[in-house]
């Protein structure tokens, strides 16, 4: 079996290739982007694909892009970072570098339990990404609502009491898109003001 160990980082990963204890490709750096992934692929295309098993430390979200790139091309396995740490303890020199770690991942894969990536794992990773993105949007939305409330409290505190549901409704937002201050609203023609409110709130205002 030919083992490929990839040490994951934020911007630049390191990969090494080991065949049953013999290093056949020395550790090399590749960027965490499409060009870097193409470099990795070109290195691995010199090896019999059917014998390749690629392993990565399970490291937050930084590995997701390279996993998505590789999963349809090669067999992937995930190992626990604790196993790699335990393997490092067996060495007399307690060296920790990206190049050393990529080789340690290969050796860890050879002597420890690992789990193959499945199609469901890939789907789960994508779902996690979407959930994180949604959660960040919710936090951003809440922060912007607080900011808007504070600004309106300063320049037009009476506006909140006009809408029974408060500032954060479509009608109020549509009004504020057109009018940024009490003076802007006061200067509007009554027909235009009526149309804005009526259209946004479907005739209730």
Q: Can you offer a commentary on this structure?
A:
This protein is α/β, with parallel strands linked by helices and 205 residues long. The protein is 53% helix and 18% strand. The chain has helices spanning 34-44, 64-70, 81-89, 98-111, 119-155, 159-162, 170-178, 182-187, 190-200; strands at 2-7, 12-19, 22-31, 52-57, 75-79, 115-116. A hairpin with a 4-residue loop joins β1 and β2. α3 (81-89) crosses α4 and α7 (170-178) runs antiparallel to α9.
Q: Could you estimate the helical fraction of the residues in percent?
A: 40-55%
Distance between the termini: 73 Å
Overall structural class, as computed from helix and strand content, comes to alpha/beta
Strand content: 15-25%
Major sheet strand order:
3-2-1-4-5-6
Shape: rod-shaped
**Overall pLDDT score:** 84
